[in-house]
């Protein structure tokens, strides 16, 4: 506690004495500046500068200002304006006590949600009310109600208008950075639509002058209200405060200020006071709203965990850029970690960005993409910085015994801001499709082999889908069967079918792809005479077959094309785990109920195990090529295939051997009682 206390800069006694002296002369000077009377009615200050100065000083300088104010009031009422009744000294005492209480009140409410409003109410309403009531109570003979109201209005308006100006001046003298930034923002704001703002200010001053020059001028002041409200909205806060003060000076310069009609003057002050209060309420709302927007913007633009930028900040920073690079460091594996560990690593990465590189201000953490995105200049030096940063992070993580390394870095050129979303999306897709086993760390997505796959899957065009078929024959001499195969191309380039389906699954485009492939395959099958083949088999993923919507779509296609269901075999292929076995079984049973045959493809790897053979409603099992190849030379493979054939025979399931390529393999398979043979030896795939 002592160490903390000593570390905080404390005001010296000399500084406190300086504040006392400063307050003394400022308050005394304000009395002299504002000290004039009108006619023989009263000698109370009409333009009550002292109240505004006192409140501003106490708020800024604290107890030192109260001491200076107290001394100044005693001096003024003793040497400059002596009152025989002693009421001035009572007034001084009560005013001083009120100022002391104000400090306690400020400390009490400073953490309250509405502290600004409470302090505003204390100084603008309670403080002038107490000073006015003091005089009317202790000098009832010479201080009637009209004069009391006049003093209250003058003091309250002075506090309302002058205190912010005095406070602003003091903060500028003390070189307050926050205030300077605020003023700079106001100056930049007033430059926008400057002509409209000048016209508006001109109208306000004109109306005020009309109110001064005309004997009956209440309507002129009422006209101020809508003008001031509009001004609050379009004119910066500090400029608005200055404008209200100018309006008040114009009011005080009226030739009627020296009139004996105190009632008339009070009416003018009351109207102005009400308008000023309303304007300050709207100003407070404007400032609060601006702060809330700024806080919200900060929250939106900055990640709370790492203090790195967000996508919104990336958009903002790239608006005025052209021909730049966007790099995305893959963090997908990091986001699988527990939250605490993940945040620790993210904070460490952000710290390294800030301390070891010049990339911190142009780095953005995009949670939706699980990536750290960096905005770079389009040059080789920027790319070398990126690569060296990855090495720095990985070395640091290793030193801290953290089992994690940054993923691959994907980058792409961006011509301008309008292409940002497209580029970010392309980088995200590349990160999802990249080969995790590849040693390549820095990947240029402008010249990437998977771009054709991405473009193809973005909009799957029927014209880019070709259907092939591969016959397989029965060892018993029955009619031929054939499997439908899909072939893809984009921009006259052949696309690997296995990669197309793999990428489609990662990009959630598998269902759309399989629907288009199956529809085109069924259209070709429709053209064949039914007597030419026993059945045609079509491959489907577990995802497709688990989807009731997809199954209904397929059945509907059979009905529309008038294809007999018993001429179709559905092959359940190996593309991943079966997520919903119950839904799969229900859908397969539905297909079987209308006559469609069900085949289990790629038996011997992945999910195609004996368990599936026993639990799924299978008509056909297709032995994977990994078991068939060189089976003539491998006794273990022969035993497995023979075992599959025996179990299948017991369940009345036909067995197909895939990838039969040699006569020796065929001979062994026939000896093992395989029902169907499929492979290049039997028939090479051909397009319809």
UniProtKB/TrEMBL annotation:
Gene3D superfamilies in the cross-refs: EAL domain
Species this chain originates from: Photobacterium damselae
Pfam families xrefs: EAL (PF00563)
InterPro entries: Cyclic-di-GMP_PDE-like (IPR050706), EAL_dom (IPR001633), EAL_sf (IPR035919)
Domain of life: Bacteria
SMART domains according to UniProt: EAL
Keywords: Membrane, Transmembrane, Transmembrane helix
Domain EAL: residue ranges: 449-688
PANTHER family linked: CYCLIC DI-GMP PHOSPHODIESTERASE PDED-RELATED (PTHR33121:SF79), CYCLIC DI-GMP PHOSPHODIESTERASE PDEF (PTHR33121)
Membrane-spanning parts: 20-41, 53-80, 86-106, 118-139, 151-174, 194-212, 271-289
Organism ancestry: Bacteria, Pseudomonadati, Pseudomonadota, Gammaproteobacteria, Vibrionales
The protein's name: EAL domain-containing protein
């Amino acid at each position: 506690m002592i160490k903390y206390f000593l570390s905080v800069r404390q005001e010296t006694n000399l500084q406190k004495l300086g504040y006392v002296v400063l307050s003394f002369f400022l308050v005394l000077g304000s009395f002299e500046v504002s000290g004039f009377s009108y006619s023989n009615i009263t000698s109370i200050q009409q333009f009550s500068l002292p109240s505004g100065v006192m409140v501003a000083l106490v708020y800024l300088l604290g107890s030192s200002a109260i001491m200076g104010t107290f001394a100044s009031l005693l001096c003024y009422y003793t040497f400059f304006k002596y009152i025989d009744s002693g009421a001035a000294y009572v007034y001084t005492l009560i005013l001083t006590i009120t100022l002391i209480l104000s400090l306690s009140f400020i400390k009490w409410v400073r953490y309250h949600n509405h502290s600004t409003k409470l302090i505003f109410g204390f100084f603008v309403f309670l403080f002038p009310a107490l000073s006015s009531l003091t005089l009317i109570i202790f000098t009832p003979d010479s201080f009637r109600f009209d004069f009391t109201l006049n003093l209250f209005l003058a003091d309250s308006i002075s506090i309302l208008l002058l205190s912010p100006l005095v406070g602003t001046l003091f903060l500028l003298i003390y070189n307050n950075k926050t205030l300077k930034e605020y003023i700079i923002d106001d100056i930049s704001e007033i430059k926008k639509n400057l002509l409209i703002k000048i016209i508006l200010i001109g109208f306000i001053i004109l109306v005020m002058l009309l109110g001064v020059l005309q004997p009956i001028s209440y309507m002129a002041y009422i006209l101020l209200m809508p003008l001031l409200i509009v001004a609050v909205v379009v004119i910066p806060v500090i400029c608005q405060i200055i404008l209200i003060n100018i309006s008040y000076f114009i009011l005080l310069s009226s030739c009627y200020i020296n009139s004996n009609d105190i009632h008339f003057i009070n009416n003018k002050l009351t109207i102005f006071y009400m308008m000023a209060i309303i304007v300050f309420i709207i100003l407070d709302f404007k400032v609060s709203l601006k702060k809330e927007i700024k806080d919200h913007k900060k929250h939106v633009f900055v990640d709370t965990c790492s203090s790195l930028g967000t996508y919104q900040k990336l958009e903002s920073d790239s608006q005025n850029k052209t021909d730049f690079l966007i790099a995305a460091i893959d963090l997908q594996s990091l986001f699988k970690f527990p939250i605490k560990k993940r945040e620790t690593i993210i904070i460490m990465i952000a710290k390294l960005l800030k301390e070891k590189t010049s990339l911190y201000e142009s780095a953005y953490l995009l949670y939706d993409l699980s990536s750290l995105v960096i905005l770079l200049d389009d040059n080789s030096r920027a790319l070398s910085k990126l690569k060296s940063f990855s090495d720095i992070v990985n070395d640091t993580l290793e030193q801290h015994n953290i089992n994690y390394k940054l993923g691959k870095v994907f980058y792409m050129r961006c011509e301008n801001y309008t292409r940002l979303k497209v580029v970010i999306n392309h980088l995200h897709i590349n990160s999802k499709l990249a080969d995790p086993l590849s040693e390549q760390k820095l990947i240029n997505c402008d010249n990437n082999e998977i771009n054709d796959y991405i473009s193809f899957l973005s909009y799957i065009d029927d014209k880019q889908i070709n259907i092939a078929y591969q016959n397989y024959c029965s060892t018993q001499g029955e009619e031929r069967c054939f499997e439908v195969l899909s072939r893809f191309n984009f921009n006259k380039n052949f696309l690997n079918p296995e990669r197309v389906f793999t990428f489609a699954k990662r990009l959630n485009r598998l269902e759309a792809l399989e629907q288009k492939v199956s529809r085109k395959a069924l259209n070709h099958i429709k053209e064949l005479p039914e007597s030419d083949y026993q059945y045609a088999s079509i491959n489907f993923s577990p995802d497709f077959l688990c989807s009731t919507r997809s199954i209904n779509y397929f059945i509907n296609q059979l009905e529309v094309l008038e294809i007999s269901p018993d001429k179709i075999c559905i092959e359940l292929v190996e593309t991943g785990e079966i997520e919903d076995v119950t839904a799969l079984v229900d859908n397969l049973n539905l297909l079987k109920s209308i006559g469609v045959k069900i085949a289990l493809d790629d038996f011997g790897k992945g999910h195609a195990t004996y368990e599936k053979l026993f639990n799924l409603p299978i008509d056909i099992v297709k032995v994977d090529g990994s078991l068939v190849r060189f089976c003539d030379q491998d006794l273990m493979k022969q035993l497995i295939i023979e075992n599959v054939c025996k179990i299948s025979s017991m369940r009345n399931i036909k067995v197909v051997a895939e990838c039969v390529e040699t006569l020796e393999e065929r001979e062994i398979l026939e000896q093992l009682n395989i029902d169907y043979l499929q492979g290049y030896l039997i028939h090479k795939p051909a397009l319809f």
